């Protein structure tokens, strides 16, 4: 999905949120504020700590732990071809740095959808 498609989807969700009754809309924004993530923070975590901290930021603990583990093993065994593991981590994570805006916008859209459904279901 393109960034433009994601933006259109976000606008449609914002329209749905705007149609909520005032008390539910207020509750929605309270919940959203806690769960929404910043693309710049994600990018900085990826750029400076390519070992996987950006995955933790989005709640993807398994990916984060896997990245940290592979990076540490690569650094510990650097002289025994561990540099290959480190290069592998960089090769996998570097494209995510350049797609950080899209990745985080998709995450935030999922948060928005889930939060909207939660608020609609509340009595």
Word description of this protein:
The protein is mainly alpha-helical and 123 residues long. It has one domain (3-121). 81% of the residues lie in helices and 0% in strands. It contains 7 helices and no strands. The two termini are 34 Å apart.
Outline the low-pLDDT stretches.
Answer: none
Helix content: over 70%
* Mean of all residue-level pLDDT scores: 87
Spatial shape:
elongated
Termini separation comes to: 34 Å
Question: What structural keywords apply?
Answer:
single chain, mainly alpha, 7 helices
Short description:
With 123 residues, this protein is an all-alpha fold.
List the helices and strands and how they pair.
Blueprint: H1 3-18, H2 22-35, H3 39-48, H4 53-57, H5 61-76, H6 82-98, H7 100-121
Helix pairs in contact: 1-7, 2-7, 3-6, 3-7, 5-6
